[in-house]
Amino acid sequence: MGIASNCKYPMFFGRNLNSITCKGLALIMIALFLRVVLLPSFSGHGGIDKNNLDLIHSRSLSLDSDNGIRKDKFLEVPQIVWGLNNQKIAFARACLTARMLNRTLLMPSLSASLFYKEIDRLQPISFDKVFQFDKFNALCNGFVQLGRYSDLRNRTGVYELQKGSGRKWTVERDLDQLKEFSEDSFDGYEVIRIVGKNPFLWHDHWPVKDYARVFECLVLVDEIAKEADKVVSKIREVGKEMGSKSQSSQSGADPDSSLSQPVPYVAVHMRIEIDWMIHCKKLEQRLNVSEICSSKQEIMERVGNIAGLKSPLVIYLAVADSLLEDSSILAGWKEGLLSS
Question: For residues 132 and 218, what is the distance between their CA atoms, to the nearest angstrom?
């Protein structure tokens, strides 16, 4: 007999079921059976398992959508400090924080000078004195947004967000804080002002590609770009001079042939400044290792032993000379390596 005329399960939770109910119950049971049997095999083809949930979570932090950032709500951050490279990282982190909160980042103040503890010697400089403001917004349109303080309508609508610091302030706690301030309950504030440690010390929640996208939007103002071009030109001049002397010492060499050849050089980030040496020594003590700090002599030896380097070669040194205790960094390099 079929299901329509009779039911194998006449009682369900103590109640009689008619034939129509039996049909419905049978269909539900069939659907549940198929789900249990087939779903595991589909988990690799769109099923939501734990790995997929983690993937969805990571995508939500990668901020892939370009639907635009609100221009009537703002995030304000403390002055960004330390060297230019660190300032770029800190600026990108501030931008991505503002993006996660769906707010425009108020144009931050950068630092025109390096300092070690002497905060009173720090010289602030506006972002648009270093990078092109309009160019940045044009290139990063829809991804992150910079605003000016003149864009504010009511400066009294400010909420101060205290960023945590220290070892107890974990990545998870920082992320929970950002999620909390992404909720609608904080939309009433025109400005969220972050107070506390500088942005470079914030925890990181975004993939490298998001940082790279912000960096691609940073274009130096013409005045600084011209100074950078002078540095490159100086490196090339030194290289050409070295190349000419090397070829002139060789019999039968064409002295003008070096002018058409690219001038090789190696850039060395020479970390021997006061602030870095103090930081790395403390880090070595904390981790009980002795492989973080490097002396001037060790750096020179490592560069001189790089496989594949052909001398003569120009060595361009990137170092904060205002924080140096040893001013003799240009001397003592391996023969054939000309430092500049």
Answer: 7
